[in-house]
Amino acid sequence: MAWPILCPAGRVPSSFKGVKMKRVVLRVFLGLGLILIMAGTGGYILLRNSPAWDGLMLFSEGTRVENFRNLDALFPSDPVRRGTTVWALGEAPHSLPDGYGFEGENRDLAAFLDRTETTGLLVLHQGRIAHEDYRLGADETSLFTSWSVAKSMLSALIGIALEEGYITSIDDPVADYVSALDGSAYGAVPIRHVLTMSSGIGFDENYDNPLSDVYRIFMSFSTGTPLAEVLAGYEAEREPGIYNNYISSDSLVLGLVLESATGIGLAEYAQTRLWAPMGAEADATWSHSVSGETIAMCCFNATLRDYGRFGHLYLQNGARDDVQIVPQDWIEASITPEAPHLQPGDNPASFWRFGYGYHWWIPEDPQGDYLAIGIWGQYIYIDPSREIVIVKKSADAGFDTRDHETVAAFRAIARHVAGG
């Protein structure tokens, strides 16, 4: 039965008007929803086929392990080529200990290696391979990314540049070498305090906050914003040289100092002064931004054995056979906390309990050992007294809480392999 129209022309009953309005609103929402779906689908397709997708998925559970040994395929990089001769590593196979002591209990080493998603483990004793293990699809040709282990390699290059006279003194202010930072807070900081993560610059290294400074840095790598322009924007929150605060911007400044002082790109300098002379067995790579600036704070990619050779070079006081590559006095200074705020232990002038040298870590209860550390469980551990080098590559989601336990495991391995 048709609804009789009993109202004057141009007017609609309020009940009918409400129904009509609801239909209009529904159509609007459906239309907007369709537009959003289409935009979202198109945006997803664009994102999925852009370089940003690799960055978003870099640390995901399903792809992290593979990404960490293929970073040079995901992001642009420069080659760091091997030389004409390889520093031979002999073999002296040795078992690993069953366990290690930590927090008053004996823990299972095999379970620890599984739990920390170990992808590669190398133990050198007196320059010979005592243990070598590849996991989760890796092998001896895999180029494992360094993350912040690269900071310790950068330290070696600074020492070499100082020896070669490119850098006059590490007490020179940064602006003496990087004119783009002149007049900025960073420009006035002595290189020494950048080396010891004591610049006093305010920088948020929080990886859980997408609005943090470290994310802004990564964005600059993908947008091509000049790195010096970003670094010049940070302000001092305290005077330099009084507080140890780990911030990756300090390492980026060191990279700029090195390139400006030498006039040579970071990857090329690493190749000619360190990688080739050291006798690496494989070419490495060093990732760079879209504008070609090397990412000095991380992202060096190399084989497990070549990381071991770098550690062994430090064990040999910077020399390969009779050729001095990294100055011996630089190595000694690099692994010696030179001020109260850099000492290991409960230190109110430090953000953490490990001590710090020139981009090298000194664990608590010092035993002469020291190490390079990168996020997600990357380590080069060196015990000079036992002539041990341990390299561990990982994709460990719990890395933030593991460093003390990892040192305990490394010390147990060193004692066991060295026989004491």
UniProtKB/TrEMBL annotation:
<keyword id="KW-0378">Hydrolase</keyword>
<keyword id="KW-0812">Transmembrane</keyword>
<dbReference type="InterPro" id="IPR050789">
    <property type="entry name" value="Diverse_Enzym_Activities"/>
</dbReference>
<keyword id="KW-1133">Transmembrane helix</keyword>
<feature type="domain" description="Beta-lactamase-related">
    <location>
        <begin position="117"/>
        <end position="398"/>
    </location>
</feature>
<dbReference type="Pfam" id="PF00144">
    <property type="entry name" value="Beta-lactamase"/>
</dbReference>
<feature type="transmembrane region" description="Helical">
    <location>
        <begin position="24"/>
        <end position="47"/>
    </location>
</feature>
<keyword id="KW-0472">Membrane</keyword>
<protein>
    <submittedName>
        <fullName>Class C beta-lactamase-related serine hydrolase</fullName>
    </submittedName>
</protein>
<dbReference type="InterPro" id="IPR012338">
    <property type="entry name" value="Beta-lactam/transpept-like"/>
</dbReference>
<dbReference type="GO" id="GO:0016787">
    <property type="term" value="F:hydrolase activity"/>
</dbReference>
<dbReference type="InterPro" id="IPR001466">
    <property type="entry name" value="Beta-lactam-related"/>
</dbReference>
